[in-house]
Specification:
This protein is 42% helix and 14% strand. It has 387 residues and is an alpha/beta fold. The protein has a seven-stranded mixed beta sheet with strand order 2-8-7-6-5-3-4, sandwiched between helices. A three-stranded antiparallel beta sheet has the order 9-10-12. Bound molecules: pyridoxal-5'-phosphate.
């Protein structure tokens, strides 16, 4: 049985080049990067190379990047770090503004800050999952400490108007954070040209290893570290660095950046093949696409669909039996019976949320895999509906 992996938004298989960099760093650069001897310097140089690669990919200075333990840590470090720093500068700055469709790494951190006395505003989204700039304008004021709006959504792919919201945030003295975990490697991100102060990345969405991420902190941004201890990462993130993971992240980021157009085009072609296969075999009326259907308004590698009368749990289980991996939403909410907070925020009934599945694509997928998946989905759906 051919196995088909269509869950790249949950995690992408590690690129051979990233794996080679991981093994090379772990085996040939075994020192602690804080040590002054040759072993330490060898390990440190792997980190420097990776930081340089990431800074080229983002258009920032290398010293504006801090390596973290993944996207979740980057999001938490961004929110807690900026909120606390803003409040210590000005006690009135206690506002946090975010959106209802953020990843839980942002939403739960924001709720934690609310429990610590910050004032939280969660902006609604429209049917496509997009926040309105007008709502953001009304919510962001002189007491807002941090605004956090994601680049592109992990469940639907919908892009947010981060440039406009960033302008608003900046004009009112708030720090602008963007979770770019899903967008990085698919959207050309130039932080020099964006009104963004903090930006979160994760290695494992672009073919790097799990458990490594980075936080961009624009020079001069009010921000304080989450972790305290040693002076690693210029005192921004204490703890011995994950040298091999960081080295592999650097290689994956370099490849993602150099091949961005090819990756985009490939993901879009696979997505289109799956969609047209589903229209043909399942019937265009039998399902709907959740999120922005317009290519300019969404990430190319995510397709979220709701199939009338077919529960996502049953469908996913049956797909798994046929060797096809997809997801019911974000990896952390799948497996729970809760409907996705993203789809609920978009106004889908909770019944329909439970009919929705996410397929997400990468370079390992082929058009023939998309055709086969459409055929299998249609067969399973018609069997389930007959029950
Ligand atoms: C948009 C978004 N933010 C944050 C994260 C968390 O990243 P990590 O898995 O590296 O902690 C994810 C992972 O799914 C994500 O999709």
């Amino acid at each position: 049985m051919e196995r088909i992996y269509m869950d790249y938004a949950a995690t992408a298989p590690m690129l051979p080049e990233a794996l080679a960099a991981y093994v090379s760093a772990a085996s040939e650069a075994p020192g602690n990067p804080s040590s002054l001897h040759g072993y330490g310097r060898g390990a440190r140089s792997r980190i420097t190379e990776a930081r340089d690669a990431l800074s080229r990919a983002l258009g920032c200075r290398p010293d504006e990047l801090t390596f973290t333990g993944g996207g979740t840590e980057s999001d938490n470090a961004a929110l807690f770090g900026a909120a606390r720093a803003q409040r210590s500068r000005d006690a009135r700055r206690t506002g946090i503004v975010t959106t209802a469709v953020e990843h839980h790494a942002v939403l739960h951190a924001a709720r934690r800050l609310a429990a610590e006395g910050f004032e939280l505003t969660v902006l609604p989204v429209d049917r496509a999952g997009r926040v309105s700039v007008r709502d953001a304008e009304a919510a962001i004021g002189d007491t807002t400490a941090v605004v956090s709006v994601m680049y592109g959504n992990n469940e639907t792919g919908t892009l947010q108007p981060i440039a406009q919201v960033g302008e608003l945030a900046r004009s009112r003295g708030a720090v602008m954070h963007v979770d770019a975990v899903q967008a990085f490697g698919y959207e050309r991100i130039d932080v020099g040209a964006l009104p963004v102060d903090l930006l979160s990345l994760s290695a494992h969405k672009i073919g790097g290893p799990q458990g490594v991420g980075a936080l961009y902190v624009r020079s001069g941004t009010p921000w304080e570290p989450l972790l305290h201890g040693g002076s690693q990462e210029r005192r921004r993130r204490a703890g011995t660095e994950n040298v091999a993971g960081i080295a592999a992240f650097g290689v994956a980021a370099d490849i993602a950046s150099r091949t961005l157009e090819t990756r985009r085009a490939h993901a879009e072609a696979v997505r289109e093949a799956l969609l047209s296969g589903l229209r043909e075999r399942l019937g265009a009326e039998a399902f709907s696409v959740n999120g922005d259907p317009d290519a300019a308004g969404r990430l190319p590698h995510i397709l979220n669909i709701g199939i009338e009368g077919v529960s996502n749990e049953t469908l996913l289980m049956n797909l798994d039996l046929q060797g096809i991996a997809a997801s019911g939403g974000s990896a952390c909410t799948s497996g729970s019976l809760q409907p996705s907070h993203v789809l609920v925020a978009m106004g889908l009934s909770s019944h329909f949320c439970k009919n929705s599945v996410r397929f997400s694509f990468g370079m390992g997928n082929t058009i023939s895999q998309a055709d086969k998946t459409a055929e299998i989905v249609a067969t399973i759906a018609s069997r389930l509906r007959k029950r």
